[in-house]
Amino acid sequence: MLCAVGPVLAQPARIAVVNSELILPDSLPAKQAHNRLAQEFSTRDRELQDMDRKTRALADKLEKEAAVLTDLDHQRRQHEVAELTHEFQRKQRGFREDLQQRRNEELNRPGFCGGSHS
């Protein structure tokens, strides 16, 4: 028996390295998961983009009109921009957290590479 083990041990080891981060995004389950997430979150993403554009437009308008505004109007608009910015950041944070949670759920779905197969 020991004679049979000798030639096997004498063979050089061959090790293959697979970068799953490069392969998984191109897999069918990954593409399907991406499509599900894109469909699920597209409306919220558009709403956030619209909110960001409106907030930036309001801030730009405030900056351009600052010289002609009364102090009270300037403070009121600054407060409005600050509130919108805070609201945008809150919604964006919630969006990212929800997206990350759903992404993790998709990655752990049965049938997905590396997911649980219960």
From TrEMBL:
Q: Where is this region: Disordered?
A: 87-118
Biased region (Basic and acidic residues) positions are 87-108
Q: Which Gene3D superfamilies does its entry note?
A: Skp domain (3.30.910.20)
> Pfam families per the record?
OmpH
Keywords, sorted A to Z: Signal
* GO MF terms held by the record: unfolded protein binding
Biological processes per GO annotation: protein stabilization
**Which cellular components does GO assign to this protein?**
cytosol
Family that this chain belongs to: Belongs to the Skp family.
Q: What is this protein called?
A: OmpH family outer membrane protein
